[in-house]
Design brief:
Nuclear Transport Factor 2, Chain: A; six-stranded mixed β-sheet; single chain
Length: about 325
């Protein structure tokens, strides 16, 4: 699960209809309970729309938890609510920009007890000055949500594809990004066995990517996995991911090095989310000059009955 394997290959994939998937570790609950959770998450979506259209930096910031991390293309991570607030304020200060439309399209929501994972697309339009020509924008996003004690939901981790002023989806802002305080270990304390198993998965990723083994790369993903890249439709299901891997490994590319670095890992019962950066080198043809690549990955993992972990949702962006 690297920028090389997340972002490579487009593939012709059919988008799934919106659906609710109950996470493997969630309590059975009732249809009424799930409907209540979905309604609360939908309130967050509506707040996102209203805040983005108004370009209200306070409302945009309030979508996120205090220990949130927002990841976007071509910029450092925004770590903590304060860093996200400062980024939103810089964006809102740009004169003349007006968001005309913003339409999120959520494709899938998976709920664990107190956690939720969703992915989807968004489309929007904006002008950069009064009377200016309207510009269109479209992208994808991966969000991990956390339920608060009052029953509301906020964004805990988020990544979006290239955006300009559609800030709710993950804002790209020019200039240096101020980092907030480091994220606390949170609910992953005392989970050494799970952390070790996730580390093994990461090492399997390194071995499979350097070997360019399409089968081994696909085996790291759950059957119902979704892989998102910067310029391609989502790859939905293990079979679609496998087919993309096969097309990629058919190219005469040789991966020389791959060095992932975990920046943050939070684990809950049956699930986990990791923010990872990576550096890699490769040659496009035999005897070619080595090229360097850097990237960022937001990965959501699912724990299997045998205690192993696989990738459930992931999005990668090159730097």
């Amino acid at each position: 699960m690297t920028v090389l394997s997340v972002a490579v290959g487009v593939g012709a994939l059919t988008a799934l209809a919106v659906q609710l998937v109950q996470g493997p570790a969630a309590s059975a609950g009732s249809d009424g309970d799930r409907a209540t959770e979905l309604a609360a998450i939908e309130q967050l979506h509506q707040q996102d729309i209203a805040a983005t259209l108004s370009r209200d930096p306070v409302a945009l910031t309030d979508l996120w938890t205090d220990d949130a991390i927002r990841l976007g293309p071509g910029q450092p991570a925004e770590v903590g609510k304060q860093a996200i607030r400062e980024s939103n304020q810089r964006l809102a200060a740009r004169p003349g920009v007006k968001v005309l439309t913003y339409v999120p399209e959520i494709k899938d929501v998976t709920i664990w007890d107190g956690w939720a994972v969703e992915w989807g697309y968004f489309a929007g339009s904006y002008v950069e000055s009064p009377g200016g020509e309207a510009k269109q924008i479209r992208g994808a996003r991966l969000w991990v949500l956390r339920k608060l004690p009052d029953g509301s939901w906020k964004v805990f981790r988020g990544m979006g594809t290239p955006v300009a002023v559609v800030a709710g989806a993950a804002t790209a802002v020019a200039g240096t990004v101020v980092h907030g305080p480091a994220t606390s270990a949170g609910s992953d304390r005392g989970r050494d066995a799970d952390r070790a198993a996730i580390e093994r998965l990461k090492q399997q990723d390194v071995v499979a990517t350097i070997a360019r083994d399409a089968v081994a790369m696909a085996n790291m993903w759950t059957e119902d996995a979704v892989r998102l890249g910067p310029d391609a439709p989502a790859e939905i299901g293990n079979q679609a991911i496998r087919e993309t891997n096969e097309r990629s490994t058919a190219r005469p590319i040789k991966v020389l090095t791959l060095v992932p670095q975990t920046r943050d890992l939070t684990i809950w019962d049956g699930g986990a989310v990791e923010w990872r950066t990576l550096t890699a080198s490769f040659v496009a043809s035999a005897g070619g000059e080595p090229k360097q690549v850097r990237g960022t990955v937001l990965g959501v993992y699912k724990k299997l009955p045998d205690g192993s972990w696989k990738v459930f949702r992931a999005m990668g962006l090159p730097e």
